[in-house]
Design a protein that fits this description.
There is one protein chain. 34% of the residues lie in helices and 19% in strands. The protein is α/β, with parallel strands linked by helices. The longest helix is centred in the last third of the chain and has 17 residues.
């Protein structure tokens, strides 16, 4: 349930309500807006008498939350959450673009691509150091060496780094190098990993599973938020359907649906959702028009030589064109593209 405090509620009154919630063995999650404070109650609320809380000083009303996800819902947190990443804001009025190669392959490949996407207008750098692959015989990533190269690319370009952790044990290591931890589609319901990322308090990018419903995605996010980590960005990356013309089916519907159900930022991955570089620009435009807060795009300076996902990776010049198109679409729907990252001096 959700306890809405009065606009003039004092800090002592808020604390008294939180303390009372905890006496029932439930968790109290504080959400403070410009006008009032909301206390989300998570746990077995059946034994908690609503009338008792309504009578407490400073309480305006008590509202039951009908959805299975509580902290993730707009019922609990009606205003948009903004996730900040080294000067970049997800969920605000400006659109953000993350770009880079599917995998970190070597130093030259990563640095060439990182400089190219920064010059084209990217705000953060993606690249996989640990790669969950369908086949055990394909390239699995460089591991910690890849993380070190990502940190070097960040130092050279000023771009924040987004990269994936695949297990709870990897979270501290990835958090040491990355600005945002990605939870990939295949790990969306890896609950031990979700709990570890939540406990880390590190910003997280949570991708929708290959066959996951919108509700399942939001329930996965709930695991992270239950640890008090609200720095979560959701990613629609296409789902598995009967259609084989593209790698996945882009669920454009999911963007406005998610924006209506949750306060968390929502971005689109047009690369994985199509699997073909030829379609990436069109789907990117559609995603921004539908209300996405940003994009994550695969870019490779030499996709014909890529060790993974070369067929869906844009060359830098195509990515630069995509950024220009996204800026135009954002402007048309009353938003704007976030300012480009300044070049690192020295």
């Amino acid at each position: 349930m959700m306890i809405v405090m009065r606009t003039n509620a004092t800090q002592r009154e808020i604390k008294n309500v939180i303390d009372r919630v905890q006496t029932y063995g439930a968790q109290a999650h504080l959400s403070s807006g410009e006008e009032r404070t909301v206390i989300g109650v998570v746990g077995d609320v059946r034994a908690m008498p609503r009338d008792e809380f309504i009578r407490m000083d400073g309480v305006d009303r008590v509202i039951p939350i009908s959805r299975p996800y509580k902290l993730t819902s707009r019922e609990f947190h009606p205003w948009n959450t903004e996730v900040r990443l080294d000067g970049v804001v997800f969920g605000g009025p400006q659109v953000v673009v993350i770009a880079g190669p599917c995998s970190v392959e070597d130093r030259a490949q990563l640095l060439e691509t990182a400089h190219a996407v920064r010059e084209a207008g990217a705000h953060a750098l993606r690249g996989g150091a640990f790669k969950p692959r369908t086949s055990p015989y394909t390239f699995q990533g460089l591991g910690e060496e890849g993380l070190e190269l990502l940190a070097e690319a960040r130092a050279e370009t000023g771009l924040a780094v987004v990269t994936e952790a695949m297990s709870p044990e990897q979270v501290p290591l990835v958090a040491r190098y990355a600005d945002m931890i990605q939870i990939g589609a295949r790990n969306m319901q890896n609950y031990a990993l979700l709990n570890a990322v939540g406990a880390s308090q590190h910003p997280a990018l949570l991708k929708r599973g290959l066959s996951a419903t919108v509700e399942e995605l939001l329930m996965a996010a709930e695991y992270i938020l239950s640890h008090g980590n609200n720095n979560v960005v959701l990613c629609e990356r296409g789902i598995r359907t009967f259609e084989t013309a593209t790698r996945n089916t882009t669920d454009i519907n999911a963007i406005p649906v998610l924006k209506s159900l949750t306060h968390l930022p929502v971005i689109l991955d047009p690369s994985h959702s199509t699997g073909h570089w030829e379609y990436v620009e069109a789907i990117a435009r559609a995603g921004i028009a539908a209300g996405a807060d940003g994009l994550i795009v695969e870019v490779h300076a030499h996709p014909e030589e890529a060790l993974s996902d070369g067929g869906q990776s844009l060359k830098p010049e195509r990515f630069a064109a995509l950024v220009r198109q996204v800026a135009a679409i954002a402007d048309a729907v009353g938003r704007s593209l976030a300012p480009a990252k300044a070049a690192v001096s020295g």
